[in-house]
Amino acid sequence: MTRVRVAHRFLVSMIVATLGSATACATARGGAGAGAAPGLSGVQYVVDDKLVFGQSIPTGGTVSDSAWSTFLSEIVTPRFPAGLTVWHAQGQWLDPRGTTVHEPVIVVEIVHPRGEPADSVFARIANEYRVRFHQDAFLRITTDARTELYESH
Predict the structure, then answer these.
(1) H or E stretch including 144?
(2) What's the CA gap between 4 and 35, in Å, rounded?
(3) Of 18, 53, 73, 109, which one is least surrounded by beta carbons within 10 A?
(4) Is-cis flag, bond preceding 117, omega within 30?
(5) CB-side exposure of 94: number of CA atoms within 13 Å?
(6) Which of 54, 23, 46, 24 lies closest to 115 in space, CA to CA?
(7) Could you tell me which residue, 134 or 30, shows the higher pLDDT?
């Protein structure tokens, strides 16, 4: 099987999985618009965005910890003052040149109300990262989610 077909199959399977997850969440809560607005406690129906930042630079080297820290504090954090989660992982993908790239990645997860922020906010983050660190691509994964915060009283 050619690399293009493998990449296409992977992309299609990711889309199917995402659509299946979104449909299941919407059905479970009686429709996409049901649910209370996100707050500090109780069950909330929200959107979960995962932003995947590859750290390998195609022309050589990697995004340093200090460069990442600056990017996070200047570009990402101001757009999501309510909070976010960051973790480090290992990833792989088929780049535009047909090469399988294995690289460290940073995943930023942001849980937010439906429709907030606008998609353009995520597009600006993606574009800034791609330009600043000479990236070929940027991955955003969006799913419907149900949250429940358990607090001490």
Answers:
(1) strand 139-149
(2) 41
(3) 73
(4) yes
(5) 11
(6) 46
(7) 134
* Spatial CB neighbours of 130, under 8 Å, sequence gap ≥ 6: 136, 137, 138
Whole-angstrom distance, CA of residue 146 vs CA of residue 142: 13
pTM as predicted:
0.70
* Domain total of the chain: 1
Domain hosting residue 97, numbered range: 3-149
Q: Give the DSSP letter string of 28-70.
A: HTTSTT-SPPP-SSEEEEEEEEEEEEE-B-TTSSB--HHHHHH
Q: How many other C-beta atoms can be found within 10 angstroms of the C-beta atom of residue 35?
A: 18
Give the residue with greater pLDDT, 123 vs 12. 123
Residue 36 clears pLDDT 70, i.e. is over it: no
